[in-house]
Amino acid sequence: MVRHIQSQAPVHKDRRDFHNLRNMLPFLWEYRGRALFALGCLVLAKLANVGIPLVLKEIVDGLEKGEQTMLILPLFLLLGYGLLRLGSALFNELRDAIFARVRYRAMRNLSNRVLNHLHELSLRFHLERQTGAISRDLERGTRSVSTILNYMVFSIIPMLVEFALVAVVLLTQYDIIFTLVTFGTVAVYVGFTLAITEWRMEYRHVMNRLDSQANNQAFDSLINYETVKYFGNEPLELRRFDNTLADWEENAVKSQTSMSLLNFGQGGIIAFGVTFVMIFAANGVVEGSMSIGDLVLVNAFMLQLFIPLNFLGMVYRQVKYSLADMDLIFKLLEQKPEITDAPGAVELKLDGGEVGFEQVDFAYQPERQILAKVDFNIGAGEKLAVVGHSGAGKSTLSRLLFRFYDVTGGRITIDGQDIRRVTRRSLRSMIGIVPQDTVLFNNTILYNLAYGRPEASQEEIEAVARIAHIAEFIEQLPDGYQTVVGERGLKLSGGEKQRVAIARAMLKRPRILVFDEATSSLDTKTEQAIQETLREVARDHTTLLIAHRLSTVVDADRILVMERGRIIEQGTHNELLLLGGVYHQMWQLQQKEQQELASLSPEVSVT
Known about the structure:
With 607 residues, this protein is of the alpha/beta class. The protein has 2 domains: 14-333, ABC transporter type 1, transmembrane domain (ABC transporter transmembrane region fold), CATH 1.20.1560.10; 355-600, P-loop containing nucleotide triphosphate hydrolases (Rossmann fold). It has 20 helices and 10 strands. The chain has helices spanning 2-7, 13-24, 32-65, 73-120, 123-128, 131-173, 176-223, 225-231, 234-287, 292-309, 312-333, 394-401, 424-429, 445-450, 458-467, 471-476, 494-507, 524-538, 573-579, 582-600, and strands spanning 355-365, 368-378, 383-388, 409-414, 417-418, 431-434, 512-516, 542-547, 558-563, 566-571. A 6-stranded mixed beta sheet has the order 6-7-8-3-9-10, sandwiched between helices. The protein has a 4-stranded antiparallel beta sheet with strand order 2-1-4-5, covered by helices on one side. Strand 1 (355-365) and strand 2 form a beta hairpin. It is elongated. The relative contact order is 0.08.
């Protein structure tokens, strides 16, 4: 998804830039008073800056004339000169200090909004995303806000203010030729810079895309570290990464060499402009229409204008690059969540916790039907199991119940309430889930347990740990509940991770429990222990048990057998065995597999 966004052609690019700058304004609104005060300091700093050459002119002229008051007048002017320099520095630093809060708060607010929006986006988006690429895009996009604000307040606006003040002085006190040459040079400089920079932007766009692609490849390789080692494919991963970096290198070199052309052209334009202005000023002094002070003043103005102007190309490039980076963020923010609360959605009112699937149809894509006319009920406090071969649509049931997706036909109810008519937060707060692949945060066991209800007390956390039969294991660890589990919980075994998942689900205090193949990846001994835990925690809960191994569902109140998205059999374990259908065949096959493995070695685990 993110890669697609980056590769889009820059259609109506200027309009997009204006649109993005306008979208940035709300992030500044909180500290609008500070922003205005900082702009006031900016104007005062520039007034002082422009006043410096004016005072310098008076000093030079006073000394040149050799007047009787020259022992007093230059001292007065020199003090003024010093005060103006001090004022310029003071107001510049005040501007920086005051605006810092505006800039960094805008970055913080944007980061929060983006992360919140990512959490709002649907599961479909997150299944299609590339984590490495999106993390790099987010980093550049958030930084782009700071960059644009920095250059706007510290480079572009000060430059415009200073140009305006200098223009007033030149137009009111000197021949118009000085204004024409000075600002004609500026116009040529700006036009040349914009034209060359626009040409160079394509290299930057390609570099950004390849940078994100390389970052994603590196992340992908490290996340799948064990798989890389299993197949000895380190050279393949490095070659894939290096091929992308080779393309990035080519575009980076072209970007750098074209920048040399830009810098040389800018230097040439400035050199011609300064030379012509000084020729006219020197000629004015020779003719007597201008004093030495005027020559000094014009020269000082030229230096004040062209020194910051020398950085205009860099500023423009950085702003354009930042606008390109910002565009990624705002396009991401424009992504519409697939699943949202309906207008007028109400809180789910839970009574017994009865769950109903009423003629449910579902398809991830129109051409790929997953569920067809699925119809069943889970009574309050009932334990219902769903079994079937891989691809039968079992796990889709839990995703629909949790509203990761919406049904394409029929409806799902809880205590008679259509789950599409209640708020997602209230719905999900009532459901506890233990997934097949338990992923833990790279934090302490305590943090991962408390994730079910962050405000829970230590006593409550320890109580659910005992219910999940993991308390004894935790207490034996050197750091106890403060033990860090590693990325994705890799420092814990499969059984230990599952027990943590059960404990945090119980801490949530749900009325409805979903076990989505919670023991499918465990060995027989661990599976039996986890099964006993599941039986304990499922008491007095409405429970949906999704399983591939039939040994985990024999005690269920009812069992549904699914095949190709349809329910083909249902009943208790014994009823389905007597029926002699698909369930009976699956049972016989799994029993045979267990016997064969047991005959090979009593220590071989069934996985």
